[in-house]
# Entry
Amino acid sequence: MHQKRGLFLTLEGVEGVGKSTNIEFIVQYLQEQGIEYVLTREPGGTHIAESIRDLLLASNDETLDEMSELLLVFAARAQHLEKVIKPALREGKWVVCDRFTDATFAYQGAGRGLDCNTITQLESMVQNDLRPDLTIILDLDPKIGMERASQRGSLDRFEQEKQSFFKKVRQGYLDIAAAEPERCQVIDASKPLEQVKVELLTALKQGLSRINN
# Structure
């Protein structure tokens, strides 16, 4: 019998939306359901991709060119897909990924102002037709998000961006959700955590029923 491909679930949102906390909740749910999963993140997920992540997040005397940033993101993604994501999905495991290509459209596209057609071309080259089955976008006013992020300690290169940048990123995410309502579920991350968890659970159950059909 042919094994079903696993479900590819991604979480997205601006800084400080609470992805880590909600990913813990998702993992707990999958464990309770007896679902095998791989938990990973972007940029990162492999030794090489994590090294690229370090390059992307580090503040440096040399300014990172925007196109270089975009290509580094996709270089990390290509490695991540081949070494982690695709093998896990083939084995029937769920892949839970903290950020994926929607982040590239939001940060490098909407935020940096890079041409979305260029990003789309790279997406096709690197991913072929592989896309997330379900994307949960945790939505939050960037001002609140940055206040939360700054409480975690020193800020990385992205977290040091201005409010105006994060407003564009947030709008980029909302535009993606509006364009792909079947795949994307927007959850208001300013609500109490228990309420966010209820909405997350609903989204997960919908994802599970879709893959079981």
Summary: The helical segments are 19-32, 47-57, 66-90, 101-111, 116-127, 142-150, 163-179, 193-212. The chain has a mean pLDDT of 89.
